[in-house]
Amino acid sequence: MRALYSLNIYLYGFAIRMATLFNHKARLWVRGRKNLFLELETKIKSSEQPIVWFHCASLGEFEQGRPLMEAFKKQYPHFRILLTFFSPSGYEVRKNYSGADIISYLPLDTKSNADRFITLVNPSIVFFVKYEFWINTLNAIHKKGIPLFLISAIFRHDQIFFKNFGGIFREALKAFTFLFTQDENSILLLKSIQISNAIAAGDTRFDRVKEIYEKAVEINQAVIFSGADKKIIVAGSTWPEDEIFLIPAISEKLLEDWKLIIAPHELGEDHLCSIEKEIEKAGIEKRFILRFSNSANGNLGESKVLIIDNIGMLSSLYQYGSVAYIGGGFGKSIHNTLEAAVYGIPVIFGPQFEKFDEAKRLIISGGGYGVKDKGELNKTMKLLLSNKSDREIAGANARKFVLENTGATKIILDKIPDFISH
After folding, report:
1. Does the N-terminal or the C-terminal CB of the chain have fewer CB atoms within 10 Å?
2. Largest CA distance in the chain
């Protein structure tokens, strides 16, 4: 099985290189790893300070790890933070993050790469965020006796660890010094494979969204656009599959007194144009549709739709909403529901949320609405946009849910002194 794993790693690397011929993300993946060790060696040798290493698969995991990174740096300022990403989606957005001293891609998980990386970095402590179980890297860390933690982890019975053929992945889990899971069910699953060095600490994303809420910046264009009534739908991280259902579902209200702020996940010109066409099809005149980048040249107060054509603003935009729609649910999977919920507004999303425990719990709390199809979306939007009391009750439930689940960062940080030498 180990030989098969190594073969698959080499094949994966080969496939990525072939994909560079036609895929921009693959080109970034390969280009970002060129001269990786040489650049990393230069940065590491610039200081004798010990290193704490945080690894995140992509941007979502970075947001989960960020509260702990920043809290760790505050408590242990003599450590340098190394932050690595596997995906360009994380690295390209956060490669200039000021909270880390060194930011890099993680090399492909061959045995030689893993051994070289760990020898070069020589971290004093390592945190993997949520998932990514690279067997050779985990083994290299374990062999050197380096304290290794998994945070905000969530396990499901259909994962490879719990299959008959998942032996090498079960062994890889044993490399972790301690595991901090999001829920008790994950603890039970780990115990079923004889892993007991774990506790349910919760999800650090709750801490992160609370911090974002407390530090939310005012966006002047959004203030003018919202006006006094603030009857605003904020649609975040939407895909075309969302937009073809969402826009018709709210078109009647947009023709009345509601407005829409929409922040699509992909910002290509073709996608932005397709959103504008979809809105025009719903009966909104072109002059009432405004892109954020052109907002200085338009009438924000009279506009009905504001399209956000930049990255990094969405989490602050939810403060202007009365209802939130989270994209991805009619595609592969939903995006971050908590960023909206913390502002005390009801949160609606499509059917692809089963792997997201926080979304299911948000529904149970009365603050979230998972809709299975166009009909349910229409019905839910009509209910919430027509009934202020229902909106307010659901919004209060959403905010309460977030605030009641903060604290994971402190639980993890309080455990660290047991394993770290000051």
Report:
1. C
2. 65
